From TrEMBL:
Residues annotated as domain Flagellar basal body rod protein N-terminal: 3-33
Protein name: Flagellar hook protein FlgE
Superkingdom of origin: Bacteria
SUPFAM superfamilies xref list: Flagellar hook protein flgE
Record's keyword terms, sorted: Bacterial flagellum, Cell projection, Cilium, Flagellum
């Protein structure tokens, strides 16, 4: 039995190494959230087994848990680079598939028709606002910057306030409120499904998204001209890497020892 117990230990250590390697590989990925491997022991016993005689039969990977602690904030100077200073996710919708994604990576830009998007065709969602910048609906919509205003003046620049108001400025000095950034939250963010590019989708574990505005309730404010970097701590991951490597070596040594014992028994002479 010791062979299979140690074999499970090897597989678990390999999983742990893979998770740590992925964290290290994404140490420079904006908006990335690290993961950790959680293990549990495995016990085989019946109701009649003496509790003092129960022997464990190894361990198993219970979950690979995402850690959503805030990453460091880096100033970039670009008006469409956004960082959330607390809880919340940006919401984007893919223009081709219509799928909704959630992200902490606030690196946005504009496309040829003025959509504020992430470079992959996922458009930032905002609440519609009136001329005073007050939200008129709680249903998020695509954010698009008109090339000209009502008087025909050309677009000059865009700014985003700490409370999420997106405002376009035009050559004649006028401004036009375009929307208010909608932030999403989840009852269990650890249950969000990773889909790559620092994007997540809802799942049955995460629950449906709840929406709010930056700086209100549980949601953090926005920092324009900044990005949230990966929350991976390289020093911490390297220590974890060494520990996982030692665990792997120890389990391999246990298999080697069990092999030697079995060989000794087989070679016994009567």
């Amino acid at each position: 039995m010791s062979f299979y117990v140690s074999l499970n230990g090897l597989k678990n250590s390999q999983t742990d190494l893979g998770v740590i390697a992925n964290n290290i590989a994404n140490a420079e990925t904006n908006g990335f959230k690290k993961s950790r491997t959680d293990f549990g022991d495995v016990v085989a016993a019946t109701a009649l087994t003496n509790p003092r005689m129960i022997q464990g039969v190894g361990s198993t990977v219970e979950s690979i848990t995402q850690v959503f602690e805030l990453g460091p904030i880096e100033q970039t100077g670009s008006a469409l680079d956004l960082a959330i200073t607390g809880p919340g996710f940006f919401t984007t919708v893919n223009m081709e598939t219509g799928k909704t994604y959630y992200t902490r990576n606030g690196s946005f830009t504009t496309d040829q028709v003025g959509n504020i998007q992430d470079g992959s065709g996922n458009v930032l969602q905002t609440y519609p606002v009136d001329a005073n910048g007050t939200p008129t609906s709680n249903t998020p919509q695509d954010t698009q910057i008109p090339a000209t205003n009502a008087s025909g003046s050309e677009f000059a620049s865009v700014s985003i306030s700490t409370d999420g108001l997106v405002t376009a400025s035009y050559a004649d000095g006028s401004t036009l409120p375009l929307g208010s950034v909608a932030l999403a939250s989840f009852l269990t963010p650890e249950g969000l499904k990773k889909v790559g590019s620092s994007n997540w989708e809802v799942s049955g574990i995460s629950g449906a998204a709840n929406y709010g505005s930056p700086g209100y309730g549980q949601y953090g404010t926005l920092l324009s001209g900044s990005l949230e970097r990966s929350n991976v701590d390289i020093a911490e991951e390297l220590v974890g890497l060494i520990t996982a490597q030692r665990n792997f070596q120890a389990n391999a040594k246990a298999i080697d020892t069990a092999t030697q014992i079995s060989q000794t028994i087989i070679n016994l002479r009567t």
